[in-house]
Amino acid sequence: MDRELRGAPGKAVSDALTLAPIANAAGTIRLPGSKSISNRALLLAALADGTTVLHDLLDADDTRVMFAALRAMGVDVAEDATARTVTVRGGRALRAPQEPLFLGNAGTAFRPLTAAVAMGEGGFVLDGVARMRERPIGDLVDALRALGASIDYRGAEGYPPLAIGALDARDAARVAVRGDVSSQFLSALLMALPLHPALASRALRVDVTTPLISRPYVEITTRLMARFGVDVATPDAATFIVPAGARYRSPGRLDVEGDASSASYFLAAGVLGGGPVRVEGTGRASIQGDVAFADVLARLGADIRFEPHAIEARRGRPLAGGTLDCTAIPDAAMTLAMTALFATASTTLTAIGSWRVKETDRIDAMATELAKLGATVRAGDDWLAVEPLARFRAATIETYDDHRMAMCFSLAAFGGAAVTINDPGCVAKTFPDYFTRFAGIVGSDGAERVVR
Known about the structure:
Radius of gyration: 22 Å
Distance between the termini: 7 Å
CATH superfamily of the largest domain: Enolpyruvate transferase domain
Helix content: 25-40%
Structural class: alpha/beta
Number of strands: 25
Number of helices: 13
Shape: globular
Strand order of the largest sheet: 4-17-19-18
CATH class of the largest domain: Alpha Beta
Low-confidence stretches: 1-14, 444-452
Largest sheet: 4 strands, mixed
């Protein structure tokens, strides 16, 4: 496998990786830490009074972006690789650095940091890669402006980069935000509200004005806020209330769950390759919504076995097709587009409109690359229909600098033809050693058998 240095500064990227056809999969995977939990926990620890020790935090590009931003803003963040801990000494106001904060393509860093720094003295500029400049942020900016934030667009209206000035601490009581583009807007707003001066004397209420997608990700946010001492009330599905006087306080230690989205690739491998494949670090006790991916596999016919902190997958009945509402599992739903190739009937994934504003336009990207394998695919604004594929073609897959595209299409190798993944190094965003781990469950001779 040829390697070269390109892409993001300091990032080693493989030019291409070819997976030979795979017949079987079995083994145990210890998952890396959840990206969604890791970046939220890092920010909350920085905002909280006291010292927080984070255990099993994800070590990948997206968390490195958050690390670098927090350090640039004066937060004391220390790593201990041997103990697998990160110690954050929080409670100080975030300080604007002289240079813009460069946040790559990390939505879990860009959106929450936008809201957090908008509650302070200003002087911040936030920017990212070209794709981040195409990802909308206007709904969040509108809500923050309603709370007194000073935010200007430095490029296209409604998109990064952003210049953020000092907060005009108006007497706010409630704010509205849309929920149908990205749940990260609501999560960012909720995490920032305890910093708003108005909260000293009154509760702050958030009204979600459109149907909320990816609600389980917001529940991750509110559960973590509770761990840091701020309990968000939810009297109904569209209302979130942060109580007066709420303030972040360190819980002392927080253990980060394994990433449930990443679990989906290995669980699918266990089903397609016979199994058993066991993933450790997330299970029935998880706070992540993407564990529901395993429930969907079970409904489709897979043999899935849950433990509180582990899930095991085996081949069961032939996988069924049908229409699957993916509102709650937008990231893991990409893996369902791959298992659909092996189903007994057509599969339609619905409520996936958020795919279009992710690291790439994932609906278009999935439709294009699935067709290379020989699949019949139809797509709309917020849906994707995939027909079962009897005979796979060997294909070279473009990944669009999107980690999930690379990981999803590793599963195509179960179709009996070789598949080449271009730029597999893009998995460094959330799972740097994904292909090594994948090789470990698909044959006793590991990477030598799988990687050509």
